[in-house]
């Protein structure tokens, strides 16, 4: 979960959110910025700790860091889609004492972190005040699997299957988005699959051209 935590904080720093609360550190031999604010660290840590069981069971579809303007409008979204390779799942299932290949995991996370840090941040100085990021939210989406009663929507466990969607997330899903790939890791040598990309609302001119 350290990678997801650092990726989340890197996104905040890249757009000049809470700059004074960050200090420079090194993770996976990559220079990054880590947050020093206790409440912000607690929020990120508690959110990602809650996602850990889903990640280990392959039930976590993605983690989204949504940057919001002062008016609460979505400005930009960082999406991290994690998963385990088919080879890793088979080997782990066949051996109770299977150990995680830590070296390969670290290499995958390093590649993902380098790409994220190298991704050019938007020039917030050219934006109007209503289009500048002011705060953020973290959302986690899980996989619905009919073969897994813990994730499937069914009549026997409606209370566990249905969760009220956040209004910000619902409104955000209605908008046309541009997607900017950051990093994709799908090597059989790596135990983890990773897709990292950015989403931003399409300019009004682009939406007019499509109609």
UniProtKB/TrEMBL annotation:
* SUPFAM superfamilies for this protein: The spindle assembly checkpoint protein mad2 (SSF56019)
Question: Can you name a GO cellular component term?
Answer: zeta DNA polymerase complex
Q: From what superkingdom does this record's organism come?
A: Eukaryota
The record, for InterPro entries, names: HORMA_dom_sf (IPR036570), Mad2-like (IPR045091)
Q: Which PANTHER family match?
A: MITOTIC SPINDLE ASSEMBLY CHECKPOINT PROTEIN MAD2, MITOTIC SPINDLE ASSEMBLY CHECKPOINT PROTEIN MAD2B
State the name under which the record lists this protein. Mitotic spindle assembly checkpoint protein MAD2B
Which organism is this protein's natural source? Answer: Phytophthora nicotianae
């Amino acid at each position: 979960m350290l990678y997801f935590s650092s990726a989340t904080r890197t996104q905040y720093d890249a757009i000049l959110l809470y700059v004074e609360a960050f200090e420079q550190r090194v993770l996976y031999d990559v220079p990054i910025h880590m947050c020093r604010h206790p409440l912000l660290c607690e929020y990120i840590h508690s959110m990602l700790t809650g996602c850990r069981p889903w990640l280990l069971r392959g039930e976590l579809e993605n983690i989204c860091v949504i940057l919001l303007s002062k008016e609460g409008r979505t400005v930009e979204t960082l999406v991290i889609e994690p998963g385990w390779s088919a080879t890793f799942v088979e080997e782990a299932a066949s051996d109770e004492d299977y150990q995680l290949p830590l070296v390969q995991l670290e290499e995958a996370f390093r590649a993902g972190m380098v790409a994220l840090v190298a991704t050019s941040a938007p020039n917030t100085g050219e934006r109007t005040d209503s289009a500048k990021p002011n705060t953020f939210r973290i959302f986690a989406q899980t996989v619905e699997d009919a073969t897994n009663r813990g994730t499937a929507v069914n009549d026997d466990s409606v209370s566990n299957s249905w969760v009220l969607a956040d209004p910000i997330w619902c409104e955000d899903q209605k908008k046309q988005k541009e997607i900017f790939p950051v990093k994709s890791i799908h090597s059989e040598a790596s135990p983890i699959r990773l897709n990292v990309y950015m989403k931003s609302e399409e300019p009004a001119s682009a939406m007019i051209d499509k109609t």
